[in-house]
């Protein structure tokens, strides 16, 4: 018996299937599945790809930042010696309580604070003056901008060695210059305040140019229209500097203060090399310039007490957190004063005056 095959349709529709359907349902289901897959890939592309781009930062931060921080805190809760790091004796918060009662810690904290103030305040003031001078159109300004950054590119060891020779008691150039004014030789290393001033001089020399370039970049971002308007109003150069430049770079000034505070807290290389030998680790014979960084190094790598060293490291971290919190509180208080003043002024104006 002969069977007939379905003939091709001339209306553009697919030929009927053996069950009499045209096959449009299967094609529709396939198109819907393909569209669904494309939607899923699109959502992954929009939502997941950004996280893939930033994942390397968090992986590196977790491996080299967060994990060491947590592990250091774990070590600070134990008595651990450098030679037997695998043997830990649980102490809880005993290391922290002993640190609070340790006079050496408070001496190192005081030295860190005083050296930080002596080095930071002149450094930022000098950087502000340098940036203000470089902000003008000077001949050879590019050379001067590179020159002020040269000390920052110098290694700490080289700078500290040079300044150590300059501040040498018997043959140093500083004492030689002071002798013309009738001042006897100053023992810069073995006296507390001379030693701290000498170490601060190294810090000032290295970081002034770096901060000056930060201020210069902020100054160049201030619109020139503000200076022109101030000049039209009759403001002098000094008034323009106080009323236009300083408010315009206030955020950068705060940033450099925080950055200098962090650097002062972690001060280590300059006093270590300035001591010229064993006294460098202890910050002098009487610990007269021992900083928190030197105390941490002495406890961990000289006394082999890694638990106490980790405790000092966490104390430094908590100090920096406290400084950051105080800075944020001060910024909010400063920002809230104009708002309160404006509110009081508006309320005063809206209150009708009493008539007699």
Automatic annotation (TrEMBL):
Residues 22-31 have a biased composition (Gly residues). Residues 109-327 form the ABC transmembrane type-1 domain. PROSITE patterns: ABC_TM1 (PS50928). Gene3D superfamilies: MetI-like (1.10.3720.10). GO terms for biological process: transmembrane transport. It is a multi-pass membrane protein. Residues 1-34 are annotated as: Disordered. SUPFAM superfamilies: MetI-like. It is found in: Cell membrane. InterPro entries: ABC_transporter_permease, MetI-like, MetI-like_sf. The keyword Membrane applies. Pfam families: BPD_transp_1 (PF00528). Keywords: Cell membrane, Membrane, Transmembrane, Transmembrane helix, Transport. One of its GO terms (cellular component) is plasma membrane. Residues 1-10 have a biased composition (Polar residues). The chain crosses the membrane at residues 48-75, 113-134, 146-167, 197-218, 246-268, 311-330. Belongs to the binding-protein-dependent transport system permease family. This is ABC transporter permease.
